[in-house]
C-alpha cells in the first residue's frame, strides 16, 4: 500500500516562497502521474499541477504558471512543489496525489496525502 506524506507548508507573506514535499512509501511505488491539489476553506479541491513520474511531463493551471514549479526525485520517491511569488489566493490545504493516468480530475487519483496548510498573508 502506498502512503504519501506532505510537508513544508506554513505561513508566509505575499510575495514569499515555500517548498512543499511529498514523500511516498510502499512496497512498489510506480505511479503514472503525481499531482498537487489545493483546497481553500469552503471550496472544493482544486487541481494545481501534475507530473508524469517517468517522463517528467508537467501541466499547470494558468493561475500558477510561472510561479510554481513541480519536480520529482524518483530515487527518493519524493515530489516537490516550489511556490514563488505567493498570493493570498494561493492559501489552502495542499494535497499530493498519485494515480494511474494524467488527469486534472480529483477522483482519478487513488492515493492521497493528509495535506499541508499553506497560508499567505496580504
User: How many β-strand stretches?
Assistant: 11
**Ends distance:** 40 Å
**Helix content bin:** under 10%
Largest sheet: 7 strands, mixed
Q: What is the global morphology?
A: globular
SSE topology string: EEEEEEEEEEE
The secondary structure category is: mainly beta
Q: Into which percentage range does the β-strand content fall?
A: over 45%
Mean pLDDT level: 96
What does this structure look like?
A hairpin with a 5-residue loop joins strand 4 (33-39) and strand 5 (45-52). The protein is built from no helices and 11 strands. The N and C termini lie far apart (40 Å). It is an all-beta fold and 122 residues long. The strands form 2 sheets. Strands 2, 4, 5, 6, 9, 10 and 11 form a 7-stranded mixed beta sheet that branches.
Tag the structure with descriptive keywords.
11 strands; single chain; mainly beta; seven-stranded mixed beta sheet
Secondary-structure map:
Layout: E1 3-7, E2 10-13, E3 18-25, E4 33-39, E5 45-52, E6 58-60, E7 68-73, E8 78-83, E9 92-99, E10 111-112, E11 116-121
Parallel strand pairs: 2-11
Antiparallel strand pairs: 1-3, 3-8, 4-5, 4-9, 5-6, 7-8, 9-10, 9-11
Amino acid at each position: 500500500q502506498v502512503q504519501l506524506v506532505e510537508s513544508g507548508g506554513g505561513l508566509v507573506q505575499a510575495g514569499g516562497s515555500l517548498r512543499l514535499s511529498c514523500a511516498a512509501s510502499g512496497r512498489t511505488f510506480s505511479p503514472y502521474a503525481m499531482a498537487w491539489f489545493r483546497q481553500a476553506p469552503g471550496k472544493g479541491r482544486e487541481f494545481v499541477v501534475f507530473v508524469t513520474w517517468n517522463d517528467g511531463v508537467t501541466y499547470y493551471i494558468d493561475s500558477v504558471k510561472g510561479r510554481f514549479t513541480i519536480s520529482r526525485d524518483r530515487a527518493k520517491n519524493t515530489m516537490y512543489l516550489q511556490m514563488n511569488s505567493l498570493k493570498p489566493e494561493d492559501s489552502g490545504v495542499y494535497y499530493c496525489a498519485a494515480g494511474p493516468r494524467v488527469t486534472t480530475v480529483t477522483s482519478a487519483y487513488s492515493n492521497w496525502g493528509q495535506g499541508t496548510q499553506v497560508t499567505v498573508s496580504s
